[in-house]
Each structure stands twice: as C-alpha cells, then as structure tokens.
Amino acid sequence: MSSENSSLHAVSDSMGMTMPSNTPAGHARATALAAAGRVEALPTALVEYRSAGEVLVIGTEEEAALSVARQLGDPVNVAVFLTSLSNVVPFAPPKPASTSSASEHDVLVLSGPIKQLSGCLGEFSVTVPGGRGRDRDLAEIAGLSGRHFDIVLDLLESPLIQRELLPVGYFAPAGDEAALARAITEIPGLVGAFEKPQYFQLDTAICAHSRSGLTGCTRCLEACPAGAIQSLGDSLSVDPDLCQGAGVGATACPTVAMADRCSG
Ligand code: SF4
Q: Could you report the predicted ipTM of this complex, rounded to two decimals?
C-alpha cells in the first residue's frame, strides 16, 4: 500500500452518493430501517481494489467526449467509446485521435454499441458485438494487458448502470455539469491500491431466501441500493466489491442472517 492510497470510505464520500426514498427500494429501506435495531459488531475483513488508471469515457459526441478525456490527463490513460455511431459504424477499429489536439496525450477512440458493462474500480468488464454472434472484450480490443478498464466515466444521458449506489470507480453525471466537474477532479486520484471494510456477513444456515426451489424471503435483495445481492436459486450471493455498507440488507433481514460488520 503506498502512502497515497486512500480507503473506500474516502472514495465513497468524494463521490457524493445519495439514496432517494421515492423508489421501491427506498420504500423497502424505510420500512426496514423503521423496524431495525442495531446488531452486534463483527470483526472487519477488508476488500481491496487495485487500479492502474485505465479510464473508459463513454459518450455520444466525439468532441465532447474527447474534451473530457483530455481534461483527465496524467496519471490516467484514457480511451473514448462513442455509442452514437452504432448505426453508422457498427464497430470501428481503434484509431488515434487527431494530432492537432492541444493535449500531448493521444486518446484512443472506439465506436459501436455496448452489449454489457459490469464491475467496479479496477475490474470493469465491457463487451461489444464481435460479429458472427460472438461478443468481444473491449479492453482486449483497446490493447489493455489487464483485460479490463479500471474506471468508467459514463457521459450518456441514460447511464448504462443505473443504481442508487453506483459501483466504486463508475461515474455517471447524466448531464449534471457539477457532477462531471467532480468526476474530472476525482478520477486522476483513483490510481493505486485502495481498501474498504467488507461491510456484511451472511449466515446461510439461517437465511430464509429459498428452500427446494420455493422462494421465501427477498427483503435484502429488494432493499439493497447497490445491487450487491443476487439470488442463486436456493442461496444468496453478496458481492463484496459492490457492497458499500449502506446496511439496509442487515436492517431488512428478519432472521439476522445478514449482519452489518461495521455497526456498533
Ligand atoms: S433478508 Fe435475511 S433472510 Fe431474507 S433473503 Fe436476505 S439474508 Fe436471507
């Protein structure tokens, strides 16, 4: 860990996240929180992110996206993906940006539709149509040795990931100029190793989610604002990278199967 590393707590605060109450998940949280008491604090494990500073800027207008990309500069390396060209150029080969740019940094420009985007700081996966019904990995096309992007700045008016708590390393200002300015300021600082607590502990023995294919409780899945909890049939999966410690899964849980490690 370098001296410049920061904890996830600092990263989350700087992202300015808020959770609206007028959504189904918000109502579920409110109900759970109203009935909740605090649970016993558990020992805290750590979750680590590693970012080499490979940034993907997703947009529809080339000049606007390139302008943002060039404002990022060192120490990050930026590629631009233009989704607006999907009807004109299904997928264009990588090409360097114009050398007439005032920036000394070349920006790789790609275009086409995006089929899937997932992940978090240090491990965003992006797939695009590769022809003959097969998908291709955008990071591989962009020539990234790590086969992933570390950070995503999504400039689309309707961002590709829409959750109340966005993944760490994913910025989606959705037309908000102040949010875009914050992202441009914060992204260069997301290079290195970062860690946060693993906020939850799940006791599968007392989880009432499902038995023999019959679904029972789904409270934590419905309430989680980060989309960190998934059903695997008779069991649950909680993604420690996506969990940001909102604590609503624990407060929603009627059996204490889901516990918040960080409550005291
Ligand atoms: S709220 Fe508790 S009992 Fe219900 S699915 Fe989640 S962990 Fe299991």
A: 0.97
